[in-house]
């Protein structure tokens, strides 16, 4: 290719770069505009979501407050005799000792309290022995009947339950027709461990205000995985919790299709302040068992859910509108008043980028036309102004090179390069530079070889500085550094334990069988212990016959079980050492669990102190320094 053609192509490339830069500027301008518009829409949509949810929770709170008012009025009007009479009629005793609502209360028909429909109740055995409890149940039945029937188009359910597992519920549209409470619930039915009951206790709700649960399955439809959330308002009398009024919201009514409106490109996500997933179009599905796997996002292994929880913890109190790098998108975040929930609206970044890239093809087409015209003009001009003078210069360079070769100042190549003027001119200079390149290449090779040898030596030194030369496990400095590193990463909900073991009467082994046998025993013991550990655990030799084990993500019960397993494995099978000697070895163990504020030295010191207690307790046992210390001797 001639010089003029090469130059023309070079200029074409330059023009292309200029055009590409122009397109890039246009792209960034469009990207910034798209981001600003998307953030505005996200914030606006998120505001509507929060407003709609807040209105819904406000209606629920007002309904429950009105129900409590009616409850108090109805109870005051009930005499103990009248309450007992209505109680016996509405909730007849069953053969199993429980009392359950009559079928007429759900199916619809005349009852002692008037026409009733969609209601059910479960009263455990012996509940009727307390006249005050009977008055509460009857008053709650009257209040739930009146308010439930008037709110059936706004609320899925309205119910009252007590700490004694009594429950009265209005839910006329439940698919199971409340059969569980009316007929199939066992006599031992209890629900005080469920979240909807625990959040109403004084300990969990000292403000005694309405609180809402995370997503949970209905106890009456246990095997159908009907996911729901609920809002509970506690009721106290004489500073004592006597019951709770609640309302449930099934998952498919929290955010059904179209409820929150907006583009399908934007996702609405709801999360509770306790870190429970309430609604996510990709993870929460009604009647799906897998939904339960994603509810607790505080410990989830799903990167997207973990990123959502981190964002809520960082910005939930003040709100957030902007880019969330971990989610590869843009987010609007607000707190929902009255529920303790957070609403997030998310739009993937690639959708915004697609819009920003839209004008690029138009710019590229215009650039191609302009580039073709410029290329033709430049080629014609350069042939006259550059190509001819350059050919003359190339011929003169060839003459000078041949003269220098004739004087033995350089060696001409066997096959001279053919091509355009520039190529021939370059060939002459390459001939002179070849000797310099050869020398330089040799020097670089020697430097590379020495650098490689130095790196290998450094790697060996690092290994020697971190590993115990006798057993091959981490040495004291390395294992303590590892412990400090792991403690730096600990956070709320994290768990870790340190196990220190010391071979019992090891000096006697050395004295009787020699130090070679003792060394063999330590190596064999380290190998056996290492084989018993889990992925993520770490073993190190602290010195002499003492070793330390870091038990990763091990809560006290797990750590205690691992310690006992290691102790038993050492004591159960003898060790073969030098001289064909069989040694029966035991070890004592000190165990300490991490608590917030622990440093590496403090945690090791507590485990070491427990080790000394194990020695004092007779050896071959595990002593734990957490809550309840205990000692297990070998069998």
Q: What does this molecule look like?
A:
The protein has 635 residues and is an alpha+beta fold. The C terminus is likely disordered. Strands 1, 4, 5, 6, 7, 8, 9 and 10 form an 8-stranded antiparallel beta sheet that branches. A 6-stranded mixed beta sheet has the order 17-18-16-21-22-23, with helices on both faces. It has a 5-stranded antiparallel beta sheet with strand order 12-11-15-14-13. The radius of gyration is 40 Å and the shape is flat. Strand 21, helix 16 and strand 22 form a beta-alpha-beta unit. It contains 16 helices and 23 strands. Helices cover 49% and strands 19% of the residues.
Low-confidence runs of at least 5 consecutive residues: 627-635
SS-derived structural category:
alpha+beta
Count the strands?
23
Mean pLDDT rating:
85
Query: Portion of residues in helices?
Result: 40-55%
Categorize the overall geometry.
flat
The end-to-end span amounts to: 91 Å
| Strand-residue proportion | 15-25%
- Using only C-alpha atoms, the radius of gyration works out to 40 Å
Discrete helix count? 16
Main sheet: strands, sense, barrel: 8 strands, antiparallel
């Amino acid at each position: 290719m001639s010089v003029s053609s090469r130059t023309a192509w070079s200029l074409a490339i330059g023009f292309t770069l200029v055009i590409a830069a122009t397109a890039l500027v246009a792209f960034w301008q469009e990207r910034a505009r798209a981001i600003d518009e998307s953030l505005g829409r996200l914030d606006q949509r998120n505001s509507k979501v929060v407003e709609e949810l807040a209105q819904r929770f406000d209606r629920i709170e007002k309904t429950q407050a009105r129900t409590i008012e009616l409850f108090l009025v109805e109870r005051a009007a009930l005499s103990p005799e009248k309450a007992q009479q209505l109680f016996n009629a509405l909730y007849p005793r069953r053969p199993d000792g429980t009392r359950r609502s009559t079928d007429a209360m759900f199916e619809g028909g005349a009852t002692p309290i008037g026409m009733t429909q969609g209601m059910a109740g479960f009263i455990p055995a012996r509940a009727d022995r307390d006249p005050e409890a009977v008055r509460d149940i009857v008053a709650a039945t009257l209040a739930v009947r009146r308010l439930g029937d008037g709110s059936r188009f706004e609320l899925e359910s309205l119910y009252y339950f007590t700490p004694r597992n009594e429950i009265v519920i209005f839910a006329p549209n439940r698919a199971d027709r409340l059969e569980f409470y009316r007929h199939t619930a066992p006599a031992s039915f209890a629900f005080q461990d469920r979240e909807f009951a625990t959040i109403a206790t004084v300990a969990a709700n000292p403000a005694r205000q309405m609180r809402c649960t995370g997503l949970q399955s209905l106890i009456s439809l246990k095997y159908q995985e009907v996911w729901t959330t609920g809002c509970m308002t506690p009721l106290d009398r004489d500073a004592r919790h006597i019951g709770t009024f609640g309302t449930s919201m099934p998952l498919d009514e929290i955010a059904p299709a179209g409820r929150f409106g907006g583009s399908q490109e934007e996702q609405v996500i709801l999360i509770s302040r306790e870190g429970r997933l309430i609604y996510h179009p990709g993870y929460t599905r009604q009647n799906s068992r897998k939904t339960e796997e994603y509810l607790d996002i505080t410990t989830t292994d799903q990167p997207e859910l973990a990123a959502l929880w981190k964002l809520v913890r960082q910005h939930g109190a003040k709100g957030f509108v902007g880019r969330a790098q971990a989610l590869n998108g843009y987010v609007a975040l607000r707190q929902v008043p009255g529920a303790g929930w957070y609403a997030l609206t998310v739009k993937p970044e690639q959708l915004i980028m697609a819009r920003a890239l839209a004008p690029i093809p138009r710019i590229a087409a215009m650039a191609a036309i302009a580039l073709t015209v410029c290329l033709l003009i430049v080629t014609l001009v350069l042939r006259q102004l550059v190509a001819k003078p350059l050919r003359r210069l190339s011929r003169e360079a060839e003459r000078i090179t041949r003269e220098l070769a004739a004087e033995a100042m350089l060696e001409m190549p066997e096959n001279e390069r053919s091509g355009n003027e520039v190529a021939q001119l370059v060939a002459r200079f390459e001939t002179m530079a070849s000797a310099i390149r050869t020398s330089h290449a040799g020097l670089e090779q020697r430097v590379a070889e020495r650098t490689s040898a130095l790196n290998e030596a450094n790697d060996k030194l690092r290994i020697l500085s971190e590993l115990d030369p006798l057993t091959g496990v981490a040495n004291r400095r390395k294992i303590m550094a590892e412990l400090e590193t792991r403690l730096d990463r600990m956070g709320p909900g994290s768990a870790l334990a340190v196990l220190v073991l010391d071979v019992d009467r090891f000096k006697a082994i050395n004295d009787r069988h020699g130090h070679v046998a003792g060394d063999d025993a330590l190596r064999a013991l380290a190998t056996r212990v290492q084989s018993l550990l889990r992925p993520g655990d770490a073993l190190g030799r602290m010195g002499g016959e003492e070793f330390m084990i870091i038990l990763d993500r091990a809560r006290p019960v797990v750590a205690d079980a691992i310690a006992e397993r290691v102790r038993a494995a050492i004591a159960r099978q003898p060790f073969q050492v030098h001289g064909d000697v069989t040694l029966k070895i035991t070890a004592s163990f000190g165990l300490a669990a991490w608590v917030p504020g622990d440093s590496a030295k403090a945690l090791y010191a507590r485990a070491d102190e427990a080790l000394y207690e194990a020695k004092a307790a007779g050896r071959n046992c595990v002593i734990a320094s957490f809550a309840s210390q205990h000692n297990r001797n070998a069998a």
